[in-house]
Amino acid sequence: MEISPKENAHFFSNNIILSVDRSSFKSESSTSKEKQSCCGGIKIFLGALSFVYFAKALSGSYLKSTITQIERRFDIPSSLVGVIDGSFEIGNLLIIILVSYFGANLHRPRIIGAGCLIMSAGTFLIAVPQFFMGRYRYERFPSTINSTLGLSPCLQDKNQTPLSALEKSEAKINAGCEKEAGSSMWIYVLLGNLLRGIGETPIQPLGIAYIDDYAVEENAALYIGCVQTVAIIGPIFGFLLGSLCAKLYVDIGFVDLDSVTISPKDVQWVGAWWLGYLIAGVISVLAGIPFWFLPKHLPKPESRKGSSTSSEHSKFIIEENKDQHTSYWQQAKLAEMAKDFLPSLKNLFGNPVYILYLCASIIQFNSLIGMVTYKPKYIEQQYGQTSSKTNFVIGLINIPAVAFGMFSGGLIMKKFGIGVLGAAKLSLGSSFLGYLLLLSLFAMGCGTPGVAGLTVPYHGTKPTADYEPAVFSECNSGCSCSRDAWEPVCGEDGVTFASACLAGCRASSGTGKSTVFFNCSCVGTSESSQSSSAVVGPCQKGNECPKMFLYFLVISVITSYTLSVGGTPGYMLLLRCIKPHLKSFALGIYTLAIRVLAGIPAPVYFGVAIDTTCLRWGSKRCGGRGACRLYDSSALRHVYLGLTLVLGTVSIFFSVAVLWVLRKRSSPQDEILSANGERGTCGTKSRNDNFVNSDRLIQSTYWPEKETRL
Prior knowledge:
By secondary structure, the chain is mainly α.
């Protein structure tokens, strides 16, 4: 059968159409599969990174919750605890440059996994001293130890105590000294926190860059926002874990709890601080496991292929001749980077808005870091709360207020279309109102507890104008008491005594926490009182203190929210006043300055200032000054809040200067654009040199901007 040319052409065209349809179907199918695998891979990475953010935030906040526990366990002052807290930032700074530079070219998921292992090793190392330094021994002296044997707390004659008992007591003390003399176990805590800082370093820069490289561009901001949201949940669980562990005695499982004579309200109480670090270490290990099975690269989304918008992809634009020109291109790029470094630095520091905002941020972070670090200690000492309750309150009330404040700041900017000038005003207003509220906390304090011989005289409730502290008095002159003893008892007259011996008690009944002392010659209003009694533990603070604590919580939550509202506008102000090609460099300088000039020194000098308010220092078993046992509540309040407010006030002056420069450099047209919901600029003067045009910034795809758009 002969086929006509027309039919042949028709058959040929049908075959072509069918083949084209099949090829297009195959390409669509492969594209959908690639897109599905890409989305699946990035979502797995997102879930793993979110869990890592949760783990590192949990361990970091748990360290803050155990500040007072570590101080008491190792008998160290607050200034040394500040050094331990700042060691995390030191560890982070040691390798941040290496990780940022080399990490982008290596297997980023595995580097993050290795960081998690290092972070968990550091967390475990912090808990190690608990298993090598023996059982915790709070201050006990022969006079009070033997009170459980039915002897008089007031030893009128040392021969009254059986010699064997004294010898055993001295032998135990000497043995403990030999064990403790050659070691300072707190160094392991410092080294562990240093390792935590090293392990945490690659998580943020490499993790966020990985998401930005392989996520669909319109989803990148949402993914990063999810990670940051999970990171806020971490501290809540960290402080709640600290609250739980603080309820448990430090040597739980190793000693008979019925023999413990102190309660969680005692200043010598130490909770199971080490237990939380073991839990946090296990969580860090689990968080790092998925990264060892993730690929080095994920398939690029179709919308990102062939695009130069990705910060990582732009480094490797030359694809075809990469093998031939890699070395030459890298050398040329390194030479260009070295050549442009000083001009870029000069350009950056020539930007008055950036410099002023950097100074304001450094000083404000000094204020906030110092305040947050010692907030648990302040609540415990000022309001007589336990460590467990303090951590519970901070974790359940303060941290959610901070998270809600950050979200509110971003929401306000988006809803009202706030530009650069508006962001500066909002940041300044929130700081001013927050520190103004903080000023009211000066009136919400409790008085220093009455301790005989320290804050009040014996047989009196109020010290006279010329009163000088005196440990001994006529009422206990017949007793052989230790000057350094700190085993507080509460007399029935509401006055605390450093020990039952200094209270002049001559009889006792019961053991442990239920011990009651009788015939205390220093308790009461007259020396002839023979029926006065005392119980173990310090006296509770005045009746008005619980009410003051409630007021403090309310103002503290409002202050935390108010200060946090200005966080997002301030960050946007920083981003919008930097040229796109200098933005990464500017943020690196900003982060470095905050860590070096605020994260490291603030806990140290805050701790030194707090140490100056101590009225009674503890004594180490082998001699020397231990941790503080009693603070001057009024002086502590003025030092803690005063230092925070002074730093905050100075930062406000710099923020005012930022606003003044922006007003001076902005044109009326910029303000009109800002009021209409469009992005304002950082000014018109020297715009090409120091500031970024709003249109250019809109085109920039740098990830922090996407994050703050949420």
